[in-house]
Amino acid sequence: MAIPLSGSLLDACVLAVVRKGDVYGYRLTQEVREALEISESTLYPVLRRLQKEGCLCTYDEPYQGRNRRYYQITELGHAKYDAFLEEWTMYKDKVDRVLMGGNNNE
After folding, report:
1. Residue ranges of the domains in the chain?
2. Which one, of 73, 49, 46, 45, lies nearest residue 59 by Cα?
3. Contact assessment for residue 17 and residue 32, using Cβ atoms and an 8 Å cutoff
4. Residue 55 and residue 71: Cα distance in Å, rounded?
5. Over the chain, what is the mean pLDDT?
6. Which fold has domain 7-94?
7. How many C-beta neighbours within 10 Å does residue 7 have?
8. Average pLDDT over residues 16-43
9. What phi and psi, each to the nearest 5 degrees, are found at residue 49?
10. pLDDT band for position 39 (50/70/90)?
11. What is the average per-residue pLDDT within 8-25?
């Protein structure tokens, strides 16, 4: 089973970063950019969708006279991350077998 590399991979990367600890949007973008080329304008709709799906929640903290919005992973977000990780592992193993010249039916 192949997973789509666009939306699902971005969701998985976002959840992976947030599961390490609460994080604000700009910092989250910087960490996800280490793996994928994305802009803040691409990331914020993903964050809103994950929040609407119940995978993330938010809270605001004052920072230098303004509020900074932090994202926090929920139980549902942890479960979704675990499912992504399982799918990714299966996908990666299949690709590794093809790239290394192995048999896909092993």
Report:
1. 7-94
2. 73
3. yes
4. 10
5. 89
6. Arc Repressor Mutant, subunit A (1.10.10)
7. 11
8. 91
9. -65, -45
10. confident
11. 94
